[in-house]
Design brief:
alpha+beta; Structural Genomics Hypothetical 15.5 Kd Protein In mrcA-pckA Intergenic Region, Chain A; 2 domains; five-stranded antiparallel beta sheet; 9 helices
């Protein structure tokens, strides 16, 4: 599986906003956007003098931003878009729902990890189970009624041991129900657009793939 190994701070600078890819660092003065709020590269400082971006450019940037926020590569993102087309309802919202219900994103939303990248690592190392079965595939899509929990053998791990009972249930989205004491959660219902707080214009992504 391919993976991005360059500085993720460059991705935030390219999009011109915080994508919260490095957890707590994004909330500190060390954040790259705070220190260098211009695109990376040799001509990044002159970006503000560039000509107005075309419709295609705006659509491309929105698609790239979505991919970078959720840590998905192009081939998989296209597959998600085709799945969103097949589902009933608005394609753009369907796409966001698919991305939100990825297991790594759910782990991040529950507060078990400070970033989606860390959540992917925790999942791939086999720390979690879904409905009582060990699941180490970060792209696994959860459904309404699914129960996600830290595996019993991993609850003695220092990382999770310190976390138990100290999780902020108030920060968890309404479509998830967290039991911080037992390090488990349930998918109460499918997320809606109101539950998804990412700053994306999903219609631009639909227009990009509909050219």
């Amino acid at each position: 599986m391919a993976r991005y190994i360059d500085s993720v701070c460059k991705l935030c600078r390219r999009e011109g906003e915080k994508l919260f890819l490095k957890g707590d660092r994004c909330f500190s003065p060390k954040c790259a956007i705070e220190r260098r709020g211009y695109p990376p590269g040799q001509h990044g400082r002159q970006a503000k003098f560039r000509r107005k971006e075309s419709d295609f450019g705006l659509q491309l940037r929105e698609k790239q931003k979505a991919r970078r926020i959720y840590g998905v590569f192009e081939r998989q993102f296209r597959r998600y878009f085709r799945e969103a087309l097949r589902r009933k309802g608005l394609t753009g919202i369907n796409l966001l729902i698919i991305l939100e219900t990825r297991l790594d994103n759910v782990i991040y939303r529950l507060g078990f990890a400070s970033s989606r990248a860390q959540a992917r690592q925790l999942v791939s190392h086999g720390h979690f189970e879904v409905n009582g079965r060990k699941t180490n595939i970060s792209s696994f899509l959860v459904s309404e009624g699914d129960v996600i929990a830290v595996r019993q053998n991993n609850k003695t791990n220092v990382y999770f041991k310190d976390m138990a009972g100290n999780m902020d249930e108030g920060r968890v989205p309404n479509w998830l129900s967290l039991d911080g004491k037992n390090l488990s959660a349930k998918v109460s219902n499918e997320p809606t657009r109101e539950h998804i707080d990412v700053t994306l214009n999903e219609q631009l992504i639909v227009e990009h793939y509909s050219r």
